[in-house]
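Amino Acid Chain and Its Fold in Token Form
===========================================
What this section holds: a protein sequence and its matching fold, both as plain text.
Structure line: whole-number tokens from a learned vocabulary of local backbone shapes, matched to residues.
Purpose: to set a sequence beside its fold so the mapping can be learned.
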Amino acid sequence: MANVQYYDVILKPVVTEKSMNAMAEKKYTFLVHPEANKAMIKEAVEKMFPGTKVDSVNTMNLEGKNRRRGAVVGKTAKTKKAIVKLTADSKDIEIFQGL
């Protein structure tokens, strides 16, 4: 496994209608490094966003989609998505506040 540091784990937040509605329950969705495990994701969220305490992490591996351009067939890159649930006494994550 590659040497993945905590600041390399979280790639970007997922901003969809479903993920924005889940923020009311203190659930935040991120695209994460494909080789990151749940413990690494928990550590990264707690270090990158001070005052947050992670209750649970759910992950899902997403296969690349088939794409075709003329006779050439290929796939897009695989991704990994994580839904992070914070504890009730935890601070909210500030990057989502202006959305």
